[in-house]
Design brief:
Blueprint (H helix, E strand, L loop, with lengths): L2 E3 L4 E3 L13 E8 L7 E4 L9 E6 L2 E7 L5 E8 L7 E8 L5 E7 L4 E5 L4 E6 L6 E6 L6 E6 L4 E5 L4 E6 L9 E6 L6 E6 L4 E5 L4 H9 L10 E3 L4 E3 L6 E7 L2 E6 L3 E8 L9 E9 L11 E2 L5 E5 L5 E5 L6 E6 L8 E6 L5 E6 L3 E7 L2
Parallel strand pairs: 15-19
Antiparallel strand pairs: 1-2, 3-31, 4-5, 5-6, 6-7, 8-9, 9-10, 10-11, 12-13, 13-14, 14-15, 16-17, 17-18, 18-20, 21-22, 22-23, 23-24, 25-26, 26-27, 27-28, 29-30, 30-31
């Protein structure tokens, strides 16, 4: 068994021999109908171990917080309705301030980022900067006061949710040439992010030479608008792995999982040469087929330790793949007669025993492993 350090300790990765064909049985334990408007995002709180069973959804101008209970129950905790009735939230992420206060960060069609203090149940801050809708928000797990946003305005922005400062803008000469649909922080290299979008590319960016500005954002006392925001115009790597829109990418150690509208998720390695930035070679490691997944804005999720990934499709089915096996191992294929609407996003619990989905028809489905 080949062992490679991937950023999660020493784990078996691609190239290893799968010692067992894992299969899991899941059953539907709950279904909620949140409303009639599409739900575009659903996510567990992996930032704070006290709240690993708490999750949030967004759809229309509403952000809702729930808790997964034992035995399949789901409890409604909080709900926020945006003052803009025409807002349609597309994305939500958990974050926190430097003292550890839990925040929810949501964005969508109007391009405004809402930071909600879940302790006081009030808006902490609203960020204006993007020139168009926001397609994804992700949080830096190593510094959860930092978030990164992907926008229809062809840019990615790095923000400090504690101080309200836009620190860096990834855009310009080497930037995306169409909507940016997804973005993710590297799990262990704090300087690195990956973004992807409608220009069919995945771009890897480095913040290393701008890190002093990140540190400055925590001690800045003047108005956030006076902060010397810097443009990062050139990525360190550009990958053309897909031939169509790329709507979700996630780091898997130093590898990348990316999904296009080609009915599959691809695991690949960027072969980066530090001395020559720009378009580079990639090593395609594995492909995870997802039938009937040919519409864009369907996002997959992984459990905390990246043992498995769950991705929905336009027919309401879920495919659960084991990530630590080669060749690829389909753990489960889930379907329910009453779930026929496109699954816009899945959320896997900390240990992968619960899978949540949010659907185009406004429904939330909960699946649990059958022991």
């Amino acid at each position: 068994m080949k062992m490679v350090k991937t950023g999660f300790g020493c784990e078996p990765v691609v190239g290893s021999v799968s010692l067992s064909k894992k299969k899991k049985d899941y059953k539907v334990t709950n279904k909620l109908q949140e409303g009639k408007r599409p739900l575009y995002a659903i996510t567990f709180n992996f930032i704070d171990s006290r709240y690993f069973n708490v999750f949030a959804t967004v759809g229309g101008n509403r952000v809702t917080v729930y808790q997964c209970l034992e035995g399949g129950g789901i409890s409604l905790l909080q709900s926020y309705v945006d003052e803009d009735k025409d807002e349609s939230f597309y994305t939500v992420s958990w974050a926190c301030d430097v003292d550890g206060t839990p925040f929810l960060v949501a964005g969508g069609s109007n391009g405004i980022i809402r930071v909600i203090d879940t302790g006081t149940e009030k808006i902490h801050k609203s960020f204006v900067g993007h020139g168009d809708s926001i397609n994804e928000i992700r949080t830096q797990s190593l510094k959860p006061s930092l978030i990164v946003t992907a926008s229809k305005d062809e840019s990615v922005r790095l923000w400090n949710v504690d101080t309200g400062i836009c620190i860096l803008i990834f855009s310009g000469a080497g930037g995306h040439r169409n909507e940016v649909l997804s973005v993710d922080f590297h799990p262990s290299d704090i300087y690195r992010i990956a973004s992807c979008g409608m220009d069919n590319t995945v771009k890897i960016w480095s913040m290393k030479e701008f890190w002093t500005y990140v540190e400055k954002s925590f001690t800045w006392t003047d108005l956030p608008s006076k902060f010397p925001t810097k443009y990062v115009q050139f990525p360190v790597f550009i990958a053309a792995v897909h031939s169509n829109y790329v709507d979700c990418n996630r780091w898997f150690g130093d590898f990348i999982l990316s999904k296009s509208v080609d009915n599959e998720v691809v695991l690949w390695e960027p072969l980066i040469k530090e001395q020559s930035a720009g378009e580079g070679m990639v090593d395609i490691l594995q492909k995870y087929p997802v039938p009937e997944c040919d519409i864009w804005f369907i996002k997959f999720s992984c459990d905390f330790h990246y043992n498995s990934a769950a991705v929905g499709n336009r027919e309401g089915k879920i495919y659960v793949w084991e990530l630590q096996a080669s060749p690829p191992n389909l753990i489960a294929r889930l379907s329910h007669a009453q779930c026929r609407s496109p699954i816009r996003q899945t959320a896997m619990s900390f240990d992968g025993s619960t899978i949540l989905t949010c659907c185009e028809d406004g429904s939330i489905w909960r699946w649990d492993v059958v022991n």
